[in-house]
Amino acid sequence: MQPEFCTLPWQGGSVHIELAWVGVDDAAAPLMVFLHEGLGSLAAWRDTPEKLCAACGWRGLVYSRPGYGGSTPRPHAQAWPLDYLQRQAWELLPALLQALGVQGRYGLFGHSDGGTIALLHAARHPLTHSVIVLAPHIMVEEFGLASIREARRQYLEGDLRSRLARYHADVDSAFWGWNEAWLHPDFGSALSLGAISLELKHIRAPILAIQGQEDPYGTMAQIDGIAAILPATELLKLPRCGHAPHRDQPQRLTEACQAFSRRCLPPLPPQRDLP
């Protein structure tokens, strides 16, 4: 992906957002916005957006949130607010779409934190035509917090910092923003099932929710909880799959996205020869 940059007002200043357009070069094709995980970025997606867009006939918008990838880093003395997922969904993403001149309907493809952002955004933005979420979080589970604590240990003592550094201009900005927010004792009140339920019930777009059965960051309660609020949600539970279905089960994910798109999105109009 060849990145470009967009400047947005944000939190009393401005931020540069790293982004790329991928997929079908046709304005009539469905637009899908890709929202990365808590330690992800545009580069960390690797070729997943291009492959999915090619397989499903989508245009794709991929970007790094502030603090990640090549976007403006988080000031090291500044902690993410505990409602950072809500702010990304309700403030940053709408501002980015407006700045890029996106008009009409669009879909959301979110992984982990990005899945939560996708759900929260769709709840308040009826132009969302579809939502695909991989390993989303709608509540804090002790099961997942144990893995986040282990990630902290691996970052300080193992090779996690060096592995992440290839995807972020400021790797400490990316890691500590995410890790410290999630491990804050009050984070569970910001990401509680009760609070998220009040939002999710307003989603009108079709949802495909996918979870790996070996995900160390969340149990099936996450996507089962979405279906309990929105019974029309399509669930896909993948065996032999961890936290990243697009890496662990790429073929199965692609097939599920293709079928979901055929059911939920209008096909491209046929091309006509000019007279």
UniProtKB/TrEMBL annotation:
Keywords: Hydrolase. Residues 30-167 form the AB hydrolase-1 domain. GO terms for molecular function: hydrolase activity. This is Alpha/beta fold hydrolase. It comes from Ideonella paludis. The lineage of its organism: Bacteria, Pseudomonadati, Pseudomonadota, Betaproteobacteria, Burkholderiales.
